[in-house]
Amino acid sequence: MRIIYDKDNQPKSQADPYIIFAEGRYYIYATGEKGVAVYTATAIDGEWEYLGSALETDGEKDFWAPCVINENGKYYMYYSSVKNESADCHDERIKVAVSDRPDGGFEYVKDLLEPFSIDPHVVKSGNGLYIFYSVNDWEAERAGTYIVLQKMDSPLSVTGEPVAVVRPTLDEEIFQRNRFKKGQHWHTIEGAFYFREGDYHYLIYSGNCWQSKYYFLGYAVGKGKEDDLTKIKFNKYPSDSVYAPLISANEFESGTGHNSVIKIDGEYYCVYHGRDTGDVTPYDNRSARACKLVVKDGVLTAKRYKDKL
Questions:
Q1: 0.85 surpassed by pTM
Q2: Largest Cα–Cα distance in the chain?
Q3: CB-based contacts of 83: which residues, under 8 Å, 6+ apart?
Q4: What contacts 24+ positions apart, CB below 8 Å, involve 171-178?
Q5: Which of 22, 208, 229, 279 is 20 to 30 Å from 100 by CA-CA measure?
Q6: Residues 147, 131 contacting (CB under 8 angstroms)
Q7: What is the per-residue pLDDT for 184?
């Protein structure tokens, strides 16, 4: 179900939508060329209002995949961007900005990680903070982008070494064949979103190419009572060798990927971007969508409908 429609006063794209509930309202933050777009509504299936840019930084462009958390009364936004003069997306690095409110006013504080680092998801587990994000491995058998996890010692700093969480294992995860050199097909696993239900730890990710209609959502699962997420072993569902997407192209939408998850009145909802099937406009015309997510005993099932939740 599309939850944000194109209007004259708002951007046409809501790529990489990240949803939170704060101060009595829902907020969605989205990728933008000149800044991070923010929308608000009183219900997930209600009327979403475009509030403008939650964050802009002089001299920067391509603000990708924002994630927002509330820690000790402050809102921290994690995102990546590059200098205006950069022509290489691999210059993207994760940064952090802070605001006293969820609807905007975020100000850049510092660079958090080195390039290439994208698609942060910062979560609290036990008494600690952890950040999932994506980096490149140029020398792996299936070279490309994959997901790592790192501890944080504060909302503004990481500690220790990153731990690999999910790597490419399938041809369906190929971003582009012969991308950088002949015979080396570039794979992509990105857009990590983690949540926990009981002793099951779920990590939803995006695979393939974000410009392609074959972009999809898959997931990995770990099980354990540990709060230290670096000790959880995540396994792709159903296995490394089987392509079984959680969400992929169907009769009414394609290019589906890069999600966030929220629990409302005991039910889970997956918020992701996609394009209407048959839409031939450029790939930046991605819109935010939502579906119910059934979570049971280590298995996720997406309940997708064109016109309702």
A1: yes
A2: 53
A3: 59, 60, 61, 91
A4: 172/207, 172/208, 172/214, 172/216, 172/243, 172/245, 173/142, 173/144, 173/207, 173/208, 174/208, 174/209, 175/144, 175/145, 175/208, 175/209, 176/209
A5: 229
A6: no
A7: 94
